[in-house]
Prior knowledge:
The protein is α/β, with parallel strands linked by helices. The protein has helices at 9-15, 36-49, 68-77, 91-96, 110-114, 116-120, 132-139, 155-167, 183-196, 209-216, 220-238, 253-276; strands at residues 2-5, 23-26, 56-59, 82-85, 102-107, 125-130, 171-174, 200-201, 244-246, 249-251. The chain has two domains: 2-216, Phosphoenolpyruvate-binding domains (TIM Barrel, Alpha-Beta Barrel), CATH 3.20.20.60; 220-276. 48% of the residues lie in helices and 14% in strands. The strands form two sheets. Strands 1-2-3-4-5-6-7-8 form an eight-stranded parallel β-sheet. The chain has a two-stranded antiparallel sheet with strand order 9-10.
Amino acid sequence: MLYVPGDKPRAIEKARTLAADAVILDLEDAVAPEHKVEARANVRAALLAGGWRVPVLVRVNGLGTQWEHEDREMALLSGASGLVLPKVEDARAAQELSLGRALWAMIETPRGVLNAPAIAAVPGVAGLLVGANDLARALRTRPYPHSQTQRLPLLHALSAVVLAARAHGKVPLDAVFNDVRDPAGFARECEQGRVLGFAGKTVIHPDQIAPANAAYGVTHEQAQQARALLDAWAEGRAAGKSVVTFEGALVEQMHADEAQEILNLWAANQDSVIDSSDR
């Protein structure tokens, strides 16, 4: 998911041409207070103009701010695919804002992490997005000196968000990576996020889209491997076997289910490539 500042009309138009899986038009942190009203008008115009090939969400300003009500009203009336709500800390807030559109709850405070299971359980919540910058500040963490484990102080919180989302069938998305000049660091963080169980990455720059798609996608080789496993599983089941052997390893139903998920993701990736080829 690509964040795009609402006060940058040229960036909003460029976002139409990019291969992100979704776009988040941002009215919150990326927009200074003096530009909030202008940004809301820009986002409204972009939504009403249509022509988007991917879901378009709006990150509204948080509860208790002077902009919250007008932001939500604009997003709902202008046809946004969903709302991104910052700093969600309890299920009640998520329940009250389940307004018939998908709600993506940002977990970026200690209370939000502790209450993530209850937030994820709310029917209108589509997924949980980590806000690592605010979370790190609230936890008073410091950057870890080793590049491979820079987010070590946040690992418990990151895993807690994944656990909460997965337990309730919701989508967990990893936090943004701030240094757009460090592609190697971004790649490492994508790899770490996927290992932790995140379904994808939120990004802040067009150059981060392709590496994120690659990190969270499926390679041709992985798809072929999954297809071969499923073939072996189907052959074994047809012979009345409950467990089969594939490349020297035992295969059970859960392995077949995982292989099918890989193929489903591969198919979705191919559709995305086809859809974006003429952008």
